Amino acid sequence: MTRSELIARLTSRYPQLIRKDTELVVAEILDAIQMTLAQGNRVEIRGFGTFALNYRSPRTGRNPKTGESVSVPEKWVPHFKAGKPLRERVDRLLLKPPHLLA
């Protein structure tokens, strides 16, 4: 699902919201998550999951095209861990036979 698909789904589900308001809400939520992570904090959405940062130490990698050694600097990368209700729901849906998913 893309951002525009999410906005379209919310707009159709809640007709009292105009598209501009829905776009603003989605942008604010995503911006709040980004800003919190950028400050080094984690974001927990109960029943959905947790966004946190993982540290990657500096290492030596390889350029796959040339095989040349390349220095990869240290960095922080965003990480998402799904919550138990989300994991269980996905597992339940994916274990159903395809003809029952419709």
Automatic annotation (TrEMBL):
* Any one cellular-component term (Gene Ontology): cytosol
| Zinc listed as a keyword | no
Q: Which GO terms describe its molecular function?
A: DNA binding; structural constituent of chromatin
GO biological process: any one?
regulation of DNA-templated transcription
Q: What is the role of this chain?
A: This protein is one of the two subunits of integration host factor, a specific DNA-binding protein that functions in genetic recombination as well as in transcriptional and translational control.
Q: Which family does it belong to?
A: Belongs to the bacterial histone-like protein family.
Q: Which PANTHER family match?
A: DNA-BINDING PROTEIN HU (PTHR33175), INTEGRATION HOST FACTOR SUBUNIT BETA (PTHR33175:SF5)
Name the chain's protein. Integration host factor subunit beta
Q: Whose protein is this, by species?
A: Sulfuriferula plumbiphila
Its lineage opens with:
Bacteria, Pseudomonadati, Pseudomonadota, Betaproteobacteria, Nitrosomonadales
